[in-house]
Amino acid sequence: MNARLKEYNLNLDIRQVPDAITCIFHSLLLHRSTAKFHYKTETNFQLGSLGIKEVECQFIDLCYVRVNSDELAMKVDEDVRAFHAEVERSTRGRNNGVIQTQISMEFFHRRRKSSWLPLVSEGDENIPWERWNVNLIVNLNSNEDISSLRETAAEAVSDIILSLCSCINKPQYMPKMPTQKEIADVFDEQFSDVQPYLFKIIRNKGPSSTNSGVAYTMKKLMKDTLFI
Questions:
Q1: How many alpha carbons fall within 13 Å on the CB side of residue 147?
Q2: With a cut of 70, which residues of the chain have pLDDT below it?
Q3: Which of 79, 78, 55 is nearest to 65 (CA)?
Q4: Contact, 14 vs 139, CB < 8 A?
Q5: Cα–Cα nearest to 188, from 51, 33, 77
Q6: pLDDT tens digit string along 163-182?
Q7: Cα–Cα distance measured from residue 134 to residue 117, given in angstroms and rounded to the nearest whole number
Q8: pLDDT of residue 21
C-alpha cells in the first residue's frame, strides 16, 4: 500500500508560523476525527457527539474551525510550539535572511509483526496511509509591520485549506472501521472527548538557509518518496 502524499508551500514571517501550522493541522484533524466509540458488541458500536469550535488567529487575518476538544488542541499546540521554538533557536545570531524548513502530519495504523516462529510476535509497526507536508520559507526579520503581512498570509493559508478540503474528500484508502479489540490499531484513544485516527506530527530537525534550498528540497522529496 502506498501512502498518499500531499505537499504545500508557504512563505511566512516567523511570527506567523504557529498560526498557519495550527490552522492547517486542525483543518486536517477536523476531517480525520470521530466522536468516541461506544461498543455494544465486538463489532456493533454507537458514536457519541462531536462539537466544533471557531478560533481566531493572532498574526493572520483568518479564523478556522477545529474539533471542540481542549485535549486535542493542547496536543497539537505542544508540537507546533516546539517546532516554532526550534526554528527560533536556529535563527539566533542571524540579523536577517530566511530559512527553509518543513513540518508534516502523518496518519498511520498499527500492524503486529509476525515472526516465522509460531506464536511469536515481533511487536508493532506503524504503517502510514496519509502524509501532509508543509514546506516553509520563514522570513527571520521582516522590516514590514505585521499588519501588512496578515492579509497576504491569510490568502495563502486559505488556499491551502480549500485545497486540502477538496482533496481529503476524494475516494481513497482509509483504514476499515475496527472491532473493539482493534480500535487502538486505528484510532488514538488517549483523548476523553474525541477519537482521531492515529497521527503524528513530524518536525524537520534542521532548517537550512536559502543558499542550499534547492538541494534541501530535492533531498526531502527523495527521502519522502523512499519512505512512502
A1: 0
A2: 1, 93-96, 113-123, 141-144, 205-228
A3: 55
A4: yes
A5: 33
A6: 999 999 888 888 998 898 99
A7: 42
A8: 98
Helices (H), 32-145: 70-90
| Residue located via cell numbers 518536525 | 203
Strand partners, 203: 103
Beta carbons within 10 angstroms of residue 203's beta carbon? 16
Q: Hunting for cell 538557509 — which residue is that?
A: 209
Q: Structural domain of residue 70, as residue ranges?
A: 4-227
On the CB side of 47, CA atoms within 13 Å amount to 10
Question: Reduced to 3 states, what is the DSSP secondary structure of residue 46?
Answer: strand
Q: What is the DSSP letter of 165?
A: H
Say if CB 131 and CB 5 are below 8 A apart.
yes
By residue count, the chain amounts to 228
Q: How many independent structural domains does the chain possess?
A: 1
In three-state form (DSSP H/G/I as H, E/B as E, the rest C), the secondary structure along 63-82 is EEEEECCHHHHHHHHHHHHH
